[in-house]
Specification:
The chain has helices spanning 2-16, 23-39, 46-60, 64-80, 85-94, 97-112, 119-131, 136-149. By secondary structure, the protein is an all-alpha fold. 35% of the residues are buried.
Amino acid sequence: MIKALKQFFDDQLSQKEDDHPQEHALQIAAAALLFEVSRSDHSVKPEQRESIIGLVKKQFNLSEEEATVLLDLAEQEVHDATSLHGFVTLINENWSQQQRLELVEYMWRVAYSDQKLNDHEVHLMRKVQRLLYIPHKQFIGAKLKAKKSS
C-alpha cells in the first residue's frame, strides 16, 4: 500500500514540479518533522493530524488528497528512521533560514493544536531548534506566533 501511495504522490508531484526532483524528498522531510511533534507525547490526536494536513497543504500548495498522502508517507518514513538527522540534514542543505524558521513555527502550531503543550514536545522542539540552526530569539518568536494563532 505504501508503494501505491508513494507512486500516486510521485505522479502528482511530477506534473507540478518537473524542475525540482528533490522537492518531493524535502516535502516528506518537513512533514516527517511535523508528524514527529504530534507523536512526541506517544499519541497522535486527530486535531494534530488535521493541523499537519492543513499546514502542508498551505506550505506546499497541495490538494487535500495530496496532503493526506504526504502525511502517510512521512509517517512511514518516521517509523523507518533511526533519528531526525536525515530529515534535518536535507532541510538544512536546501532551505533558507527563513524557510526553516517557518517550519519551526508550523511545528509549534502542531504542538499547540491539541491545546496542551507537554514536556516531550518542548524537548523535541528545542532539539530541532539546535539542529536547524535557529537562533533562540527567533525560536521563541515562532513559538509565540504559533501560540497566538492556536
